[in-house]
Amino acid sequence: MVRRKKVCVIGAGVSGFAAAKAFAARGHQITIVERSGDLGGVWEPARSYPEVQTQSPKDLYRYTDKAMPDSYPEWPKGLQVHAYLTEYAKDNDLLGAISFNTAVMKMDRRPDSAPGWRLELREPDGGISHEDFDFVAVCTGQFNEPQTLSLSGEESFKAQGGRILHSSQYNDPMIAKGRRIVVLGGSKSATDIAVNAVNSGAAEVTLVYREPVWRIPYFIGGLVNFKRILYIRAQEEMFRSWGIGALSRFAHAVAKPLVWANWRGLESLLKLQLKLGKCDMVPNERIEDGVNCSVPIATPGFFPMVADKRIKAIRGSFDRYDGNSIVMTGGQRVQADVAVLAIGYKLGVPFLPQAYRDKLVDSDGQYRLYRLIANPDLPEMGFVGFNSSFCTVLCAELAANWLVRYADGQLARQPTPKEMQDNIEMMLHFRRVERPAAGVYGGLCVAPYHFKHFDELLADIGVAGRRRNPLVEKFTPPDAAAYGRFLASAPAYRAAV
């Protein structure tokens, strides 16, 4: 018999709702702790820059049991995603379980020696409370704490009226109107903000980036939705994955010339379509060597604006602030009214004691997580949404369903601590040696191995569902509704008091 648990879900975003629903569906008591005053995580309106939209098409950015509205565009805007998440929380009676404006300050093992954790919480009124939980699901994801950059001359720059903002603080297009905007970063958020600044009437817009990277347009060749090329098993199988046998290695060796030609063809198409040569933004890296979760989608209008100098693109980084200017590492000096730091977020679990963090993260930043979800040295705890992907919602939902069964000892393939550690070591070797690009985001990136990751989780869960026609399966993107049916076929159980 599975005992009912008191579960804390940290975070009221995509992953938090997936975890809360999965645990509640198995009869557990849930509390969702959210440090903000609103739900949505990265989709909270106060954190969203103007015109933000998903990188993934809406049928890849949805829960298995709820499609996005037909009225939504192929790539929904931030406010639409927020509305979708709000409706999902309502549908599953999750809103009442959320404690808003409540932050986890610390967590440690329960002092009564019972299984679980004691959390130190900062309440909405600023007071501190403590609460014990049998299990904790960390759903803060990888876009939680904004990355900072402290340089000399900041105070003088601000004293002359300059503003320094993280990209999450660029939430009003009027920030740019009539001002000189300098954006630091090469991510999609950086190019989105640069384009928005131009369209919002900025006096000047400069983008500062380290190296050009391959960017994928929404429609490759202007015709084919990129999901039909990059999110299919046939493309995934061009990459050698982990744990493969001699036969698979031989097949990869035989197919190597064809795979090489495939990537060179895609590079040529992207150079032509995006006019990378004219923009002086042709990457040095082969496209296949850098495919991971950090490959950005090309912001519509970005490359034309670079080509006609509406956006001035500078390779390098910020070196220092000097009066009303920013001096770059290459010596260029750019006058600025607003500096937007689109430099990402800190990856970590700051409320976890250092002794446990050392068990979770190696010295080189690689995470020690079995299936990117659980660590055998951190009992009664797991992570949902750390398995980063362009199929974010589906990844979170599968991880959540895996985690509740792992917590309850109900996986069809329940791993032993030794099996988990051996697998973790194998995956660390793969990320560090066989495919270093897989080490991005602390090794928590699923791409380009979405299907293999999903297959492993479903096999562990013990689904009885069958795939579609093999040919259709090989050449079509993941079907969220089908994965919902697979999950529903797993052995049912419910926790008892």
Structure description:
- The chain has 497 residues and is α/β, with parallel strands linked by helices.
- The chain folds into 2 domains: 6-145 and 346-489, 3-Layer(bba) Sandwich (FAD/NAD(P)-binding domain); 147-218 and 247-345, FAD/NAD(P)-binding domain, CATH 3.50.50.60.
- The protein has helices spanning 14-25, 78-91, 154-159, 188-199, 227-230, 233-236, 246-274, 302-307, 354-360, 392-408, 417-434, 440-443, 450-461, 470-475, 480-488, and strands at 6-10, 29-33, 98-99, 103-109, 117-122, 128-133, 135-138, 145-146, 163-166, 180-184, 204-209, 219-220, 224-225, 312-315, 318-322, 325-328, 333-335, 338-341, 345-346, 381-383.
- Belongs to the FMO family.
- This is Trimethylamine monooxygenase.
- It comes from Bradyrhizobium valentinum.
- Keywords: FAD, Flavoprotein, Monooxygenase, NADP, Oxidoreductase, Signal.
